[in-house]
Every structure is written in structure tokens, then in C-alpha cells.
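Team,

Forwarding the record for the chain on the shared tracking sheet. I've put the sequence and predicted structure together so nobody has to dig through attachments.
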Amino acid sequence: MTQPTKGATCPVHAPKDHPAIPPQKTGILLANLGTPDATDYWSMRRYLSEFLSDRRVIDYAPWKWQPLLQLVILSKRPFTSGKAYKSIWNEERDESPLMTITRDQTDALRRTLTEEHGDDVMVDFCMRYGNPSTQTKVREMTEAGCTRILFFPLYPQYAGATSGTANDEFFRALMKETRQPAARTIQPYFDHPDYIDALACSIEAAYAGTATPEILVVSYHGMPQRYLTQGDPYHCQCQKTTRLLKERLGWDAAQITTTFQSVFGPEEWLKPYTVKEVARLAKEEGKRRIAVVAPAFSADCIETLEEINEEIRESFEEAGGEEFTYIPCLNDSPAHIDALTQVIRENLQGWVS
């Protein structure tokens, strides 16, 4: 990472005691959901408390929600969540796969953008919950001379509980800066041709290496049905991603279906639920071979590596399914990095040449 003092100079006519000013540059700050620092109870509790206290995620009145969260849910859930994280933990780096992959994506993008723009850009990443925090990275960028920051939540489809809350935290971080940089946020890229093409290529590669699945289940992270009726565009953007993917692959409607996973709490969420739909496909439609892909996730994480590849796989197999193919997220694949780079280029127009 560029040091704040590198290349710093004093203005020509400034007094001798004027602080050195680093060369101006443009920051590209990637953002993902977040991760616990470790799998033990207290690390999990801190992370889950921050996540589940976000009013964009759980919008119940705090006086009603917080006692339930702090006294009941967080007395048990850190143990079960910690066990799930431990099953996928990157022991070599002592971090979650989401942290590893997001760092790898950032490194790849930094290499590409530095080749194009040299020291005029600074590329880094932050997490909405946990570390590295958005506020820390915004401060590092401003101290390094970033007078402009492009903020890029790594969610193709917009939802208030993902892109929305990430943007909120970015703007809160800007409020703490004495000299605020100019700021832009990325438009959702759920229908960007390069993103759709990268998804399609990953599916074609997976299908080439196995007996052709009878149906592709396109599983998106869920949210309460109520959020859709309140105006959140997430559901519509997910449906469009699936449609564009189907068209790019040249498939008919019988070969692909949209579902939603990760249901939490008592109210109705977007349907069909992935865990129930894969069982129905096996029991009622006699599907013996299916594949599952998760386009809403830019990097494999607990919801894909543990929930899809373990819980949802088990639901399908217990219902009579035989071959379950999980197609990994795009992660730091060259096609994904190319797609993200193109989105960044389009959003940097007018800021860098």
C-alpha cells in the first residue's frame, strides 16, 4: 500500500512549517460484507452483533430487537456460526475465504489499474462489518493524497442490506474527514455484458467437466418479501441477471431456475427457497443431476461454501438427488477481474485519463 508521505512536498510559496502534501491521486475502494477475525465465541459475537444490529439488515425497532439479539440470539448463534466458519476457514492464512479472495481480487485489480495509470491511482479494500473497516481505509486514502474516491461495493445486484449499507458506511466515514475527497459510488452491474459473459463462461466450463446437469439452480441471497414491496430493486435485478444469463447461454426456460437462500427470522422471504426447491426438484420432478451457481456473491464465503455446498447439497441428496455440482463464485478468475476492471474504467471517466 502507498505510504501517506511518499512523494509528499510543500507548496512552492508555503511557509517553512507547512505540512508536506502528497501528490493527488484517485482511490478505488472495494467493499465486501465482512468476516469475523476468528472462529471463537467472542470473535463471532462481535461480528454478528455488528452485522445483525444494522438497521438496513434487520429493521425492527431497536427496543424490541436488541434485547432479543443480545440476550438470546447471541448467546447461542456464535457457537453454531463459529463451527460453520471453522469448516471452511483458511488455516494457512488464518482467515476466512472471503478475506482471502477479496484480497486476491484487490491485488489483481491493483496490478491492472497500476499498469494503466501508474501512481495516479490507489486500490484497496474494506469490509462493511469487521476488519479492515471502511473508516480506516478512507482515512488511509485521504492521508495518501486521494482527492477522489470511487467506492465499489462488490454486489452485482443492489439491495439496501448490501450495497445500500456499504454506501451508508462510506458516507459516514467521509463525514469524519476534515478535507473530504470527491466521491462516486458504483451503479449495480447485474446486467453488465462482461459480468454476464464471465458468469456464462464459468457455467460452461463447469458443465464441460461433468455429466450435463438437468437444471441449473441460480441461487441468490434472500431478503424479506416486505423489502420488495417497499421498493427495494434487488428481486427484479436478480430476475434480470438470470434472464440475461439464460439468453447468453442459449438455453430455454426449463434448463434454469431462480431461487433464494439464507432465510432468517419468522417472516416470509423471497421465494422459492433454495433449500426447499432443490428437494422438490428431486422428489417431485425426478431431477437426479443439478448444478447450483450463486451470482449475487462476488467471492465464495460462508453462504456458498458451507450453506450451498453442504446444507443445500444435503437437502437435494436426501430427497433422492444423485449428482450435485456447485459452480464456484467468479472470485479472482481472469474473466471476473476483466469485468470488474471494465466497470471501474467506466466509472472513472473524467477522473483519470
